[in-house]
Amino acid sequence: MSQPLPKVTLRAVEPEDLDLLYKIENDQRLWNVGVTNVPYSRYTLHDYVANCSDDIYADHQVRLIIEDSGGNAVGLADISNFSPRHMRAEVGIVILDDCRRKGYATAALQHLCQYSRNIIHLHQLYAIIEQTNQKALSLFAKDGFSEQAVLKDWLFDGASYSNALLMQKIL
Hints:
The chain contains 6 helices and 7 strands.
């Protein structure tokens, strides 16, 4: 029998989240799974928080803080690369190291899918996941994402290329 998922809330990024954003965006271990490979300054992140409209149509992305039932930030969720014409977007989740393996990513992904379908009215979500990242592949597969393509030599870590899988879910 599996454990019930923890209750999570997805909320907008607040100025008080600057330290959390700084920690996540500058974690070099995550650079290989994202599109950035440079550190972000506090000033740049502060400017982002101050100037983002939290409107997916204006920003083509929504960044959300994942909170546990006690109001503690446990991670970050992104809906990015939004295409209003095709009603699709990319999804990504980062859970803080000390909060991993507790069900937060699963609960957050379920909420993201519901939010994307019911509020933003997206038709589909997709994720690009490094082919050997079994934990992430399992997370998305458990939530109904299916493998659509192998992207050859898609990710570069500074020394070598690795394949990625395109995972997709029709909402």
